[in-house]
């Protein structure tokens, strides 16, 4: 009888311990590997932050979901300037820090520091200069990037950037601006996926140009559903920025395509722009992943 009680107690203890361990956020590491930072949890690659000096700008690739498959697209022949998950900007004082050759403009990493690794989140700091041949640099920026795994069906990338104007800057009206995501083709609306904003509008025609605090893009793959959401923090300049959306898999909160004067955005020397985004890579659709609830948490932080 005593032996049975002991065995029962052991089983209960093991079940409790395994349940408690499962409920704990995974430890995330950040390691420099060549020209990139690898973020991993339980040995699995979540994403790489690539800072190659021959690239147009730093970007994330791959961006793996809970299925361990990549949810973003690393360029294609039609849109070679869409690099997975990235931050760029066109038409800055005559330069182009989004597409075309490096001679038109390039966002160059000045160095990456790992601030935290091996805890519930891994955090890095990255400073960049915006430069092009024959012209003074108009902008420099500092980025704080954190990656966490709050549960087995959600990965989170927090991206915070402060842009400082090194001179008076004029940004002509452009649809190529700021934080952007390009989904893998098997998740795109044209292949059966779904793009939906916080108000429930769905698809390119209903979401294009509309202001919304967040947007989710998801689709079916490998017998399940997986997606990626981009959330804008309420403290952001231009919040909530209107969205530039495409059914082929692109979405971005893009204030520079809808400037107040209809022509351009003018920023003075020394002015700083603060922007915070949260990316949630998740299993299920936007309701199953509770993206609305996740935004409520994010806006309080």
What would you say this structure looks like, in words?
The structure is a single chain. By secondary structure, the protein is mostly beta strands. The chain has a single domain, classed as Beta-galactosidase, Chain A, domain 5, CATH 2.70.98. It has three helices and 19 strands. The strands form three sheets. Strands 1, 2, 3, 4, 5, 6, 12, 16 and 17 form a nine-stranded antiparallel beta sheet that branches. The protein has an eight-stranded antiparallel beta sheet with strand order 7-8-9-10-19-15-14-13, covered by helices on one side. Strands 11-18 form a two-stranded antiparallel ribbon. About 5% of the residues have low confidence.
Model regions low in confidence, pLDDT < 50 over at least 5 residues: 8-22
Rg: 21 Å
Largest sheet, in brief, is: 9 strands, antiparallel
Strand content: over 45%
Number of domains: 1
- By oligomeric state, this entry counts as single chain
**How much helix, percentage-wise, in residues?**
10-25%
How would you classify the helix and strand content by structural class?
Answer: mainly beta
Looking at the structure, what is the overall shape?
globular
How many separate helices?
A: 3
Order of helices and strands: HEEEEEEEEEEEEEHEEEEEEH
- The CATH class, by name, is Mainly Beta
Round the mean pLDDT to the nearest integer and report it: 92
Q: What is the CATH architecture term? A: Distorted Sandwich
Distance between the termini: 53 Å
By DSSP, the count of extended strands is 19
CATH fold topology: Beta-galactosidase, Chain A, domain 5
